[in-house]
Amino acid sequence: MSLSLDPTPSLSLPLAVATATSNTQAQATPASSPPTPKAVQPDETALLKAYLEAVQRKVLHGNAGLITVPPQSTLGQWLGLYRMHVENAVVQGWLHEQHFAPDTLLSINPSTGTLSAEIEGKTKTFHLSDTSGWGQISGPLLETAKVIAPGNNGDLRVRLGKDSIQVSAKVVANFEGVSLPQTLSQARTQIRYLEHKDSFDPIPANDRLRPASSRSSQALQVQKHNAANYYSTAPQALAYKRLAVDVANNLPNTRAEAKKWADDLLLKLTGKPIDSDTVYLNRFKGGESADTATGWEHTFQEPWSSLRLPDALLKNFSEHDWVPGNLDLEAGLYTQPAGQSEKGGYGKHNQIDLKPSQVMHESWKTDFQSQMTQKIDNFWNSHSDSYQTAIKGEFTFQARKQFKTAQAWPAVERALQAPEHQFTRDDYKMVMAAVPDLPLDENAPISVDQLKAKTPIKAPVQANALSIHGFTSSDIVRFSAGDGGRQVLYIPGAEPAFLRFDSAQKLEQWLIDQAKDPKKSEALASHFPMIYRQDQTAGFAARAAKVLMPLLWFTHVGETKDGLDTHLKKMASGELKGPAIDASHSKITGDLFTTLATTTQERMKSDADVVIKSNSEETRDTWLNDITVAAGLLAKLAPIAAPVAAVAVVTGLTELALGAEKTSSGDTVQERDEGASKAFDGLLNTLFSVGASSVPEDPFALPPEKELPLGEPITPTPANEVAEPQPGPSEGTRAGKPAPQPLPDSRSLIPLAKYAVPEGEALIKNATRDALGVYRMTDDTGAFRQFVRLTDETGTSKVFEISGRYRTGDSFAKIIDPDTRAGLTVITPGRDGEWARAPGDGAGLFAWLRRPVSPTPSDDLKSPPTFADEFVDIDA
Questions:
Q1: What is the pLDDT of residue 318?
Q2: Residues 790 and 797: beta-carbon distance below 8 Å
Q3: CB–CB of 555/582 below 8 Å?
């Protein structure tokens, strides 16, 4: 619809906007002279004039066009910083690698962190969590974009000319805190209000989206300084990410290969392309005769087992299935899993026209095990060095993170930690002896070349693979001074990854505690080769030596017939006396990570050898789960498991055996691919950032899809000075230090009570709960959801939903609005499964450099849970 001007002069738009005059000229002269107005930067006046002309074009012609922003206006200076980021050599190098043309117009969404552009004729969108590296070069660019385009206003497009910068009128209006008129009437009102001003009105003090402190000249200089530091280390972060993603991309992925296998079988047997992840092998206890593919139907009966076809192939068919007629009587291939007994049951209407026995017999023609073994060999032949680099980076990251976390705890909270969690500077120095070529300073950036270097462990620290009665772990490392004193365990995948003990005797007691709990014992045993776990037969030692020696340092394996599992049971009962740890065994003298890579490779092969010769279905299932995630180790390492290998069933043995139907995180290959590289953020920031002086904030959290207004600024309350903890006994208090006072509670920016999940307790009643108190379930729509309990500002414990980006073991999560799905505030694990707010709700520093403060101190003075209580879930 076209707009026409009212012919009445008093109601018409000005045909052109004259040079703005001062407020004193535009208004009647008062009785007394007003104070002299502050001088206005001419570029601010020019920006206002250009904006009013654009408004006039919009309502007269329907197109406001672009506004050339004067460079010395406040907006112009921030756009200049934006240009500086885009033209940075690191960003330009990344754009070139992604095949951006030099004149490509970038569309950046500050709220979600995405970048969209047309590349080679196709629109492509980059996400912070993808594997392109956008997340590693975009930090300063996004922070500046948030100042230029505050709030959730869609994409920001900035046209960078040779001598000018242009943006839309909408961008100018949003930056200046005014509304862009949509109608003729609105335009007249705005123009008449602004046409006699020298500049836009100052931003109101209560504008949460545009606080003055975020756009001041000082804030501009701070962003410039931080960006310089960021881009000085970004190439190293990018290089490490490329290396680790390449390792993960080439990781033998049993589940994905099984899906290809199942897809091929269905195509061959039906002549139709069928997605095998939509086909379920459902097993029943009998059935009724019917005109179906199997000759049976199962009305009003739930299957006792329901597996997607790829998982069914991996689980293998039992000897019972081989009996003619058994499998087709008791099972069928259906398009629906369990849950149909009262919705028509299982019959011709939802059955694939194919007998399960046909699939079974056809599957026997494929030597899937040999195929996977070959892929494993190919992986290690081509990626062994890269794997070592990746796990060295992970080790260093975990050591730095745990030490910084321990230092960040207030003294009161630190004293409440389990003794094995009180990671001191001396403990940190001990484990860092494994990487003597890296700077000991926990805040110093490192390079990928340093991670690639191979160095022996620095004396006097000794490193041994954890050996329990002669059975040696393939990945748990024990650090000590070789004197029976302080011991530190490194357990890849655990949270925390390092456990410290004042003596070998205390470590022995911890091992007994694990052995007494069947699930904890199983979790501990999963860190040992399968060949160790079985009770031994004659010739075991020779077989073990052939497969593993000298890589896993076997000792005493020929002196007993009991395997590790039996030993753990005897430790629990007290039947097995004497020390469990033999300090003289399994010493690591060379490069630690070369050793770990070699033992992982050999364990994968040895476990395959065990299962091939085993008739135990339980053993086969356990091995398939383990081999899928590279002997469990890859699933425990953030740089490897999270980016791409998430598709490889990243779960622990105690939570899920491969083949069991799982409705929580990621059932299909596509689902497991989501959020591929989120786990890198904290690691990259800790290892490669300049001045990473404290614990990384939720390293896996991404900006919410809907940006919430910023809360009012809060002046941080100075914390009491906390003395450096000194090494000493695990129990008791240290003498000679005044008792520290509790820190004041943090102010909350966002009241949470109204965001509690309605009927939350009923909702999570049957959900799966992990060791940190996170409940997981799939709702009626098939969406995966996660919940926690948290005491809100009313003092009531309620159920809240957290972002799906949270991963098991993360130190932070973000509560979301159950209606809008927008992120609200950062929370941290507390005690007894209850979560707590992070002080200040995470407000403060720039997002790409932000670090969290420690969780709110607990008033609960009960004995804290020990790592032994949580060990059952460390692999989850």
A1: 61
A2: yes
A3: yes
